[in-house]
Request: fold
Amino acid sequence: MTQIRFRDPQIDMAHGAGGKASRRLIEGLIAPVLGGSLLEALGDAAFIEAGGARLAFTADSFVVKPLRFPGGSIGDLAVNGTVNDLAVSGAKPVALLVTLILEAGLSTEVLETELRAIAAAAANAGVSIVGGDTKVVEHGAADRMYITTAGMGLADSRVRCSAAAVRPGDRILLSGPIGDHGITILLARGEIELEADLCSDTRSVYPMVEALISSIGDGVKWMRDPTRGGVASALNELAADARVCIAVSEETIPVRDEVRGACELLGLEPMHIANEGQFLAVVARDRADQALDAVRSMPGGEGAVLIGEVRETPARTVLSLSAYGGTRVVDMLVGDPLPRIC
Amino acid sequence: MTQIRFRDPQIDMAHGAGGKASRRLIEGLIAPVLGGSLLEALGDAAFIEAGGARLAFTADSFVVKPLRFPGGSIGDLAVNGTVNDLAVSGAKPVALLVTLILEAGLSTEVLETELRAIAAAAANAGVSIVGGDTKVVEHGAADRMYITTAGMGLADSRVRCSAAAVRPGDRILLSGPIGDHGITILLARGEIELEADLCSDTRSVYPMVEALISSIGDGVKWMRDPTRGGVASALNELAADARVCIAVSEETIPVRDEVRGACELLGLEPMHIANEGQFLAVVARDRADQALDAVRSMPGGEGAVLIGEVRETPARTVLSLSAYGGTRVVDMLVGDPLPRIC
Reply:
């Protein structure tokens, strides 16, 4: 793989947005220096063989602004985000650690509300919170609270997901409507004047993933939760890592009217908007219908769809095909239209 | 155990300092809400039985100020702190995840320097960095960079450390001089005018811990790295958790002149000052000399000493005995004389 060099003199918001700049920072600086393989650094969870077990291990920091928004809060995201990273890596989420960075002056009520959100989300996802850490920084040295969660899961031996398993002909499954989380955050910040009855989709996707794996086993080749950078960035990473073309049918991708409206108003692409309760899967062609049935049978998965297929060429490219015969290249997110989305 | 209620209306710096206020926040709010057992929340690492293996799992956030100081930097601390939490829990450190919260505008040079410090410390401690996450917040919403590390280790089957194993008559071992890290940070901030040739003691204590376990096996009852809140807070937590008295001989505790001088100037107690490369162990009385020899045989452990013993009464108390016959109670750290020490 070509070695990218990170040449930007300073860190900007876009480097945390999950798109091109993030990938450049990780590929060009973080992964080379820290010595992890590129895929490990970019993938959702690392696997470790330890004492006879195959374990998944992942961590994410959460800096969403505002702390609370329709459908959830930073506490929900911090649990579900890490649970989902484990789930889409093909692991059963088992335990979480929660570390807090608190700004001096934060009201105890706000902290307690988020602790309760964390506890409820963990109970709902079936994971235990087994420990953590709390640091406090001066007023002005953080924005109320940041949460980091680390998660441990047990590898599901029925699957071994990786971009390397993806083959031309495989189908792309999406669990439901995209962009709800990102646009909800944007509206919650009051940055656009728009009346919309929209909620974040934050939730554990593990039940849907489990149903999918139970149904088609190693017919599941690859999974990802399209958070920062959206479906477009996740599919572009897949296209690059698997050296394939991902061709999606534009009209099959479910987007709520409120999300589409906000995107049109702002000149954004729904496929670039963050999700917190959806997942993408690459499934074997001959088991795609069975896969779809499995996900649709689960609460929250009723709107699952097959959105496209894997092709050989043009490699490293995501194409969007319209019903009218048009074809356009869908790039990764560039810049950061929606900072601090998770 | 008596249930403590957390009644403070807001979070202050002292709640992150590792002393009484921290314990009150954890015991009175965080542990009850998150549902973890108290010991898990306060201990250094959680143990999980998974797939036939017994694994240790821990996470810490690092917000030290300044980022670099004599003897180390935030990158060193972030690796060694988590490695040490695993080590003193009786686990061999295996893998780390590193998550970064970066302030927009941070120079790439500063980031790269810390990434290199992380990589070097991990190589030195024999752990792999297997993944992580990067978030960026606006200029002014963080103080340059915060790092959270999560660590996974394999339980060492030769020991099973816990406060419950501690018995009257057991001896207390300390690996070396205390207070170097905390006073180094204070001096690096220029908060006191004092010429001192002092370095942080940040390092992995795993080689010393491993030598100790190899030497006396389950003669090791309990271990802790006395970071925030210092030796006094660690021993008070032990006294409370094991419902015993810890009696230490004041004169046996090694304190460098520079640390003692700074403490006298500031009215601080050296036993309240943070360490980043020392550990405390409770060892069986009849194996205490053997334990001491084992730690002293390791690089960095030459100054190890036996500082006291476990007594039945007065329970939940740490006593300091002077050679002249005086006895005083050593309390946990109250307040936060040294914020953002790690």
Notes: Residues 45-155 of chain A form a domain with the 60s Ribosomal Protein L30; Chain: A; fold (CATH 3.30.1330.10). Chain A touches chain B through 83 residues (CB under 8 Å). The mean pLDDT of chain A is 93. Chain A has two domains: 45-155, 163-329.
